[in-house]
Amino acid sequence: MHRRERRIALSVSAALLAAAPLLTACGSDAHPGAAAVVGGERIEVSTLQAQVRDAREAQQASPQAAQLLQTSGDLSRRKLNGLIVDRVVAAVAEQNGISATRAELQQTREAFVRQSGGEDRLAAVLLQEQGIAPDQIDAVVRRSVLMNKIAEKLGITDTAEGQKKLTDVFTAASKSLDIDVNPRFGAWDDSQVQLATATSPWLRQISQDQGAAPAGA
User: Fold this and answer.
1) Domain of 201, in residue numbers
2) What is the pLDDT of residues 96-121, one digit of tens each?
3) Whole-number Å distance between alpha carbons of 217 and 215
């Protein structure tokens, strides 16, 4: 993987995650116990709760615990947004014959570690800026590898035309998955490929961040 491609990542992955209130209850009438249904597959409320719990435990163990807990009240919807986006990214990757090899995942994670100043620093930055627990870092790495390879294969450039092409591809994939979100967490916006309440349109940011170092580097 080229150096330019390796360096899309943490800021892109940050943009995949969006704001929301804490998780407080379970499923909708249509899908009891489900936080969302994507392509006919459920994202269970229990899965979402586990992600939030892991992040909260990591925050509580941090020297900056009070600050992290105070500034991350949106964690549950942010986590749900990321879980859904992961499935959309996986669908686009599959449509384009793209996968992430173990070597690519390891290479990208090592690049993140170097650019962040060490494994502990990488974990601290992701926890502080994105609410990502240490055991969730591999998912961030996988998402970034797939996004980089998708952008490369589709010839996405930092132009209006490139951005429109990227948006069209992901919007089509999002629509095809018939994403149904429990109203407790908001509504899904196919055109932005994110929860409608999200504040960071990640598809716009992908091309802008391709030459940028990961956050915390």
Assistant:
1) 3-208
2) 999 999 999 999 999 999 998 999 99
3) 6
